[in-house]
Design goal:
This protein is of the alpha/beta class and 218 residues long. 44% of the residues lie in helices and 13% in strands. The strands form two sheets. Strands 5-4-1-6-7-8 form a six-stranded parallel beta sheet, sandwiched between helices. α9 (195-200) links the parallel β7 (184-188) and β8 (205-207).
């Protein structure tokens, strides 16, 4: 093991684009919702602009409205489609289970803007539930990324020094959240935001495969 590997006691993972390849199925569910409600068609690229900040932001941005009645209906249709059709299409990224098993003795949590219900359903389907001490999703966390209050609350609860905490994510919003919380940040290049974009936000580490964490952490 690399002698320079960091002593990390608390690993916090983003979910979409970091552990699970779940964004494409969400985008597909959005497009089906838009068609069902007879709203103007949106391309994947247009929908992708609203990814990463939770379901309300994703749905409202995709339909171009926050009118309460329309947004409520759009949310209901989207979530129904996603639960019935989208979740079963989701797969894990390479080496996720291997990495979680390798660090089985470390405290691991999920912090995501995605709904808890969706995250927990996917974890159950993929056999990952037992690896995580807690799941902090968009509907139960006290704030959404990039606000660092959720990470700060986690650190206070688990009484871990900030220098022994690492946040792993695939988007610049994850890097920003970790930096605001003053913890180590590790970006993965295989998720939603590209490598060049991630580099510009200067994460502490940038990896192409989750297994690279084995050489960074002790």
């Amino acid at each position: 093991m690399d002698r320079k590997a960091l002593l990390i006691d608390l690993l916090i993972f983003d979910f979409d684009g970091t552990l699970a390849d779940s964004i494409p199925s969400a985008v597909e569910a959005i497009q089906k919702m838009i068609k069902e409600l007879d709203l103007p068609y949106k391309t994947s690229e247009e929908i992708n602009r609203h990814v990463g900040y939770g379901e309300v932001h994703l749905v409202s941005g995709s339909i171009g409205s926050r009118e309460p009645k329309l947004l409520k209906k759009a949310m209901e249709v989207y979530e129904s489609i996603y639960l019935k059709e989208g979740i079963k299409k989701i797969s894990l990224y390479p080496h996720v289970k291997e990495l979680l098993q390798y660090f089985k003795k470390k405290t691991k949590l999920i912090l995501s803007n995605k709904k808890d219900e969706f995250i927990k359903r996917i974890l159950d389907d993929q056999g990952l539930t037992g690896y995580f001490a807690e799941v902090h999703g968009g509907d139960t966390a006290p704030c959404l990324k990039p606000d660092p209050c959720a990470i700060n609350g986690i650190i206070e609860k688990h009484r871990v020094p900030k220098e022994k905490v690492m946040f792993v994510g695939d988007m610049t919003v994850d890097i920003e959240t970790g930096k605001r919380a003053n913890v180590r940040t590790c970006a993965v290049s295989y998720g939603f935001d590209g490598k060049d974009k991630l580099k510009k936000h200067d994460p502490d580490f940038l990896i192409d495969d989750l297994l690279e964490l084995k050489g960074l952490i002790r």
